[in-house]
Amino acid sequence: MFVLSEMKDTVRVPPWAFHKKLNDAVKKTLNDKLANKVVHNVGLCIALWDITKLEDSYIFPGDGASHTVVFFRYVVFRPFMDEILVGKIKSCSKEGVHISLGFFDDILLPSDSLQHPSRFDEAEQLWVWEYETEDGKHDLFMDPGEEIRFRVVEEIFVDTTPNAPESVSEQPDLSEDTKKSPYTIIGSISEPGLGLLSWWNS
Domain 2-77 classified CATH 3.30.1490.120? Predict the structure, then answer.
């Protein structure tokens, strides 16, 4: 679920932070910049692990800050494919079941990746697994707040860097871009042992 990612960045330390040790100033700057942010094709950054190399610092004309090329390792949330995770149901929609891990909410179980057969209950706004037994069908509801075990089957990175408008008069289209998540995990529960923990523990 968590990996160490090797990264490189040029860190700007402002003059008012010169009284600190360079290592401490660089650590604070990197955490302020990266913690809880998604880096494209890397994952959700959690915390700085260590600094592996500091190159020489430079002060450029017109800027009193120091600029240092830093090599470091960062703890990143990026589950591997087919990893089994346990989260909580956040909500349901026709699109599927939305899952939260507490610190990460952009997880979707699409409707075709649920246990079969499943249906969407319009009145309750919940997905229901129609579990068949010798006694007939039993409706197993997927209620928000329930713990759910799922398999990671896909990850989607979206570059949400804003584009410069082509002309001054052009208004940015906020309807689409603002809704896009920079990092989405797609999961599946369409196999035995996956789904609500209560299904398999009782």
Answer: yes
